[in-house]
């Protein structure tokens, strides 16, 4: 199975490294000419994953057409750009493994739903979980959810990508795997705010638990299975991104919690903090589904410039309720 990777950011590059195990040939499409040049000439992605020596069997290209000979494509462009990138190429029946985490603005579609609308004949899988790119690229032990309705394709992908230090756990719940990854980014911003505003570890743990309740309410309303949400792509990834400044979303939240504006924090970013784009769409999707998501509303208020103290007061003043989802 020859693997192609769409997206030369940190995660696309780390996944290319996973797929290149045993010197298997991997073709990676990157948007930036300097990323293509740096991977091909020096086996390093200096722009997005600096300092990690890459397998020489990874070749980079700036032309999406070159991916035509691949047997499966890992789609690792940021969620808001997946539609445009897939629309530029002929996907046909090549399986697409969605690895971006988000919900499309405007349509409120999950990335897999976007892919289906652009490439209706392509089988869909989702790879998601607690996976900081630099750790995966360094070969540190990592486990992910690999969700696909087609059991045969799921097995072939797991066999192709799996390794002792990269363990795909099988699931048929594509929607559940996607919802966990999209929602946790918004909740990670909230946890960063708790850190930045110095609210303490009790508050952070409470936010993770109540945020998870929020993720579960939304996920169940959208057809996710509860066990997917409690798995690697849901709770697992939530815990990871809510606990470390290695997370871009958590770091964005730290800045907001310190009273800096979203405009300032996002203005000169080269890397993506998906939660900032997902938050407003998630607010709309939650309203549409009739699901209460107070943490998501708070993150939106902060991104729109509401004062930190005011937003925290509003959250803490909510009427007490039963704990059950
Ligand atoms: N970095 C990580 O540890 C992980 C990232 N992800 C997800 O992977 C996806 C990609 O993130 P990263 O690889 O981290 O990106 P990154 O933050 O390292 O780099 C930004 C990426 O965005 C691309 N980009 C910017 N504007 C674009 C446009 N107009 N059209 C197409 N692409 C454009 C750049 O080419 C680059 O590949 C995101 O959805 C992220 O949530 C998932 C798991 C881990
Ligand atoms: O999704 C991730 C880890 O699983 C990466 O998180 P950030 O995008 O917040 O850095």
TrEMBL record:
The keyword Lipid biosynthesis applies. Residues 2-152 form the Glycerol-3-phosphate dehydrogenase NAD-dependent N-terminal domain. GO terms for molecular function: glycerol-3-phosphate dehydrogenase [NAD(P)+] activity; NAD binding. Keywords: Cytoplasm, Lipid biosynthesis, Lipid metabolism, NAD, NADP, Nucleotide-binding, Oxidoreductase, Phospholipid biosynthesis, Phospholipid metabolism. Sn-glycerol 3-phosphate binds at residues 101, 129, 131, 184, 237, 247-249. InterPro entries: 6-PGluconate_DH-like_C_sf, 6PGD_dom2, G3P_DH_NAD-dep, G3P_DH_NAD-dep_C, G3P_DH_NAD-dep_N, NAD(P)-bd_dom_sf. One of its GO terms (biological process) is phospholipid biosynthetic process. It is found in: Cytoplasm. This is Glycerol-3-phosphate dehydrogenase [NAD(P)+]. The gene is gpsA.
């Amino acid at each position: 199975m020859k693997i192609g990777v769409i997206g030369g950011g940190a995660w696309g590059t780390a996944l290319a490294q996973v797929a290149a195990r045993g010197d298997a040939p991997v073709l990676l499409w990157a948007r930036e000419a300097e990323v293509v040049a740096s991977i091909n000439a020096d086996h390093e992605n200096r722009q997005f994953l600096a300092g990690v020596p890459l397998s020489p069997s990874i070749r980079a290209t700036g032309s999406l057409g070159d991916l035509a000979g691949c047997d499966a494509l890992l789609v690792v462009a940021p969620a808001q750009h997946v539609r445009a990138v897939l629309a530029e190429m002929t996907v046909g029946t090549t399986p697409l493994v969605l690895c971006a985490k988000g919900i499309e603005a405007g349509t409120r579609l999950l990335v897999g739903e976007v892919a289906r609308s652009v490439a209706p004949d392509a089988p869909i899988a989702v790879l998601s979980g607690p996976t900081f790119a630099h750790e995966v690229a360094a070969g540190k032990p990592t486990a992910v959810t690999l969700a696909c309705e087609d059991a045969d394709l799921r097995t072939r992908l797991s066999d192709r990508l799996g390794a002792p230090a990269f363990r795909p756990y099988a699931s048929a719940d594509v929607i559940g795997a996607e919802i966990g990854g999209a929602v946790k980014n918004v909740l990670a911003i909230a946890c960063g705010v708790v850190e930045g505003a110095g609210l303490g570890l009790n508050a952070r743990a409470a936010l993770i638990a109540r945020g998870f309740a929020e993720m579960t309410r939304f996920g169940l309303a959208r057809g996710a299975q509860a066990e997917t949400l409690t798995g690697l792509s849901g709770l697992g990834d939530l815990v990871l991104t809510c606990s470390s400044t290695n997370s871009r979303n958590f770091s964005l939240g730290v800045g907001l919690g310190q009273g800096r504006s979203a405009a300032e924090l996002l203005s000169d970013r080269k890397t993506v903090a998906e939660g900032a784009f997902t938050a407003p769409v998630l607010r709309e999707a939650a309203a549409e589904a009739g699901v209460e998501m107070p943490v998501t509303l708070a993150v939106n208020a902060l991104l729109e410039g509401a004062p930190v103290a005011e937003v925290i007061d509003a959250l803490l003043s909510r009427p007490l309720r039963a704990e059950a989802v």
